[in-house]
Description:
The chain is an all-alpha fold and 161 residues long. Helices cover 67% and strands 0% of the residues. The model has no long low-confidence stretch (mean pLDDT 88). It has one domain (18-157). It is elongated and about 55 Å long.
Amino acid sequence: MSAATYHIPDEPRPGRLGQLVVRPSGPLLAMMLCGGWLAWPWFALNAIALGSPTRRKELALCAAAVVGTAALAVIALALIDAGVIEGRTTAELAGLTIASFKLGMAYLVHTTQSRTFDVYEYYGGAIRRAAPVLAIGFWLRPLVMALIDDPLWRVIVSWGA
């Protein structure tokens, strides 16, 4: 007879990067304050550092968010170039759609990651403060936005559109 083992489905298994774990609200705030250029890689790093059993799902959501944002931006820019979207109000609504998609995806990744993080925190896992990274990211945001002079770049790396 083999011994039964008890396993918590959301049990984190932190690895060598375990000292880099932050609350999932850190990358979510990064999306709001700094943009996708910081939020998506940070969510991915946090999933790996946390040793999340749902890290594949979290990484797939981050990738889907980047690809989805790019697709929405390409569609919106093509519609503007074709004259289908005219006027400032209509263009702002297209931008709001993209921003809503990005924030919704960030919230989805946050919610998925929070389940494992709560178990990690409950059992005494080390947690880093997100504020220093957020402050640096907020300061670097204009530099990142200015790296490439292309509307598609600005839509993808910003928090909005």
